[in-house]
Amino acid sequence: MLSLSPGPTQIEHATEVAKYAQMWRITNDHWDGWTLPSKPEWGEFPFSLKDEFDRIAKWAPYVKPGSWPDADMLPWGSLTPHPGWGEPRQSGLTQEEEKTELVLWSISRSPLIFGGNLTKLDDFTRSLLSNEEVLEINQKARVSGPALMPYSPVSWRAWFARTGGAHPKTYLAVFNLTEDAAKWDVSWTDFHLAEKEHAVYDILNKKHIAPAKALNTGLIPPHGCVLFRVE
């Protein structure tokens, strides 16, 4: 497998990089902040979590077996002893933001590369790295992409993914990009599902939700997300 890290690959080179490599970076170095300070002379460095949503969506049509646009490492937990940017520290991402990052990377099928110190794993970081069903979406989905095509609202984003095989599963994620807790009702057709009642299982909160005519996200924390499996 060849993985390229040229910084932010330009979308016009998608066919070329897919011809020669199986993974390639689509951003400059991604670091541990919802938003991060930058200067014009730095280009896109450092690349924040909020910046990732539209960049990953832009590359979604090019995701396929053997062709994996890479949104960069997951900077969680202990960023020590030499993080590569800034001082040694605990990740600047909140727990909600780290969950959002895991779900976004997984449902969009970005490669998962841990960028923290494995010898200093805290319990929360370990829980993210060992969330089997979320990781299964990343590893087994055969179709994925942004919902509400071609554009999502400024305040939120939505994604879907489907696994293959004899018993395929459909997953839906909604992300709150605002600074306040919020909730939304999303049409099933925006996720390319039949317009009827669907029941879902809330994966992150581990609860079943009764059939309804639309997806009610419930209250999502700032910078947080919800992730559902359609039952």
Q: Brief overview, please?
A:
The chain is α+β, with helices and mostly antiparallel strands and 231 residues long.
Look up the CATH topology of the largest domain.
Answer: TIM Barrel
Radius of gyration: 17 Å
**Please, what is the average pLDDT?**
95
The tally of helices reads 5
Taken in chain order, the helices and strands follow as: EHEHEEEHHHEEEEEEEE
Keywords:
231 residues, TIM Barrel, 2 domains, three-stranded parallel beta sheet, globular
Write the layout of secondary structure elements.
Layout: E1 3-4, H1 14-20, E2 23-25, H2 49-59, E3 68-70, E4 78-79, E5 89-90, H3 95-108, H4 123-129, H5 132-140, E6 141-146, E7 156-163, E8 170-176, E9 185-186, E10 198-202, E11 207-212, E12 215-216, E13 225-230
Parallel strand pairs: 1-2, 2-3
Antiparallel strand pairs: 4-5, 6-7, 7-8, 8-13, 9-12, 10-11, 10-13
Care to describe what's here?
The protein has 231 residues and is α+β, with helices and mostly antiparallel strands. The chain has two domains: 3-139, Aldolase class I (TIM Barrel, Alpha-Beta Barrel), CATH 3.20.20; 142-230, Sandwich (Immunoglobulin-like), CATH 2.60.40.1180. The chain has five helices and 13 strands. Strands 6-7-8-13-10-11 form a six-stranded antiparallel β-sheet. It has a three-stranded parallel β-sheet with strand order 1-2-3, with no helix packed on it. The chain has a two-stranded antiparallel ribbon with strand order 4-5. Helix 1 (14-20) links the parallel strand 1 (3-4) and strand 2. Helix 2 packs parallel to helix 3 (95-108) and helix 3 runs parallel beside helix 5. The N and C termini lie far apart (36 Å). The model has no long low-confidence stretch (mean pLDDT 95).
